[in-house]
Amino acid sequence: MIYLIGPMASGKSTVGKALAKALDTTFLDTDEVIVMSHGSIPQIFAEHGEEHFRDLEVATLRATQAGVLATGGGAVLRPENREVLRRGTVVYLQMDEDTAARRLARSQDRPLLAGEDGVLQRWRQLFAARRDIYEDLADLTVMVEGKSVNELVALIQGHVISATR
Ligand SMILES: Nc1ncnc2c1ncn2[C@@H]1O[C@H](COP(=O)(O)OP(=O)(O)O)[C@@H](O)[C@H]1O
Ligand SMILES: O=C(O)C1=C[C@@H](OP(=O)(O)O)[C@@H](O)[C@H](O)C1
Ligand SMILES: [Mg+2]
To answer: For Mg(2+), which residues are the binding ones (predicted)?
Structure first.
């Protein structure tokens, strides 16, 4: 199983879907699986808080099988999830701050970025707290800056295929 990890807006959901198509395999996104049974992410955060969302994320990651699985940016925080991720091939989508700023300007459904600090400032804080974990888990790290979805897919595909040969 290939897992995509990385900060919010690095492209895990978008690249994951395209990668699964290129590899002719199945695709799921833990956020989408959670939303199907529990309602929207902003609603879960507002009604039950982040820890409850993390509990749902743990249960979902444990129970979900797909050729390619996109995770949410904070899924790496829970040790149970890191254990699951280590059993598969982990692709880390690494993103620079300028790309984050451009993409987050259009983001509306990420409750952890809301608040008075401003979206980019919050993104920066979360990334600072998580970057070492992303790096530690990664079997393959791909910098997304300046690359199209198709270019990223080709890059990942090349590495994944040569790693399993
Ligand atoms: N390589 C890319 N080039 C340009 N835009 C991208 C690329 N990857 C993702 N995006 C866009 O960035 C935004 C965030 O992507 P998304 O897949 O939701 O990220 P994540 O799941 O990591 O939060 C979306 O609007 C998506 O269309
Ligand atoms: O980084 C995070 O803590 C989160 C990332 C989101 O997923 P994306 O990384 O796909 O945006 C989603 O799981 C939730 O809003 C929390
Ligand atoms: Mg996503």
So the answer is: 13
Please give all residues whose CB falls under 5 A of ion ligand 3, grouped by chain where several chains appear.
Answer: 12-13
Asked whether residue 165 is domain-assigned, the answer is no
Q: Which amino acid is at 138?
A: A
Residue from 3, 4, 5, 8 to probe ligand 2 pocket by mutation (most atoms less than 8 Å from CB) = 8
Domain that holds residue 42: 2-158
163 in any annotated domain: no
Give 117-121 contacts, CB < 8 A, sequence gap 24+: none
How much is the pTM? 0.95
Number of domains in the chain: 1
Integer Cα distance of 31 and 9 in angstroms? 13
Rounded mean pLDDT, 55-75 = 98
What is the ipTM score, two decimals? 0.99
pLDDT tens string 21-48: 999 999 999 999 999 999 999 999 999 9
Residue in 52, 58, 55 with CA at minimum distance from that of residue 71: 58
Domain harbouring 127, CATH code: 3.40.50.300
**What integer is the mean pLDDT of 66-93?**
98
